[in-house]
Specification:
Elements (H helix, E strand, L loop, with lengths): L11 E7 L5 E7 L5 E7 L5 H10 L7 H5 L1
Antiparallel strand pairs: 1-2, 2-3
Length: 70
């Protein structure tokens, strides 16, 4: 199983679902840092801007924010 990309915790779960427009999405829920939300879009119909927006929209624990903005 993959570790959390934010805190490297093994206490993380990934789930997969389909967006109403048909895109395949991957979601994260981390018990270590509390990160939750979409982390990745699968398929060939997304571009880098959309992927970055999805990445930036997920919830991040306040303790990690200074490290990610540095």
């Amino acid at each position: 199983m993959k570790k959390c990309p934010f805190c490297n915790s093994s206490d993380v779960g990934y789930s997969y679902g389909t967006h109403p427009d048909g895109r395949e999405l991957s979601f994260i829920a981390c018990g270590g840092c509390g990160a939750r939300g979409p982390v990745r879009t699968y398929g060939s119909i997304y571009d880098d801007d959309e992927s970055e927006a999805s990445w930036n929209a997920r919830a991040i624990d306040a303790a990690l924010r200074p490290f990610l903005e540095a």
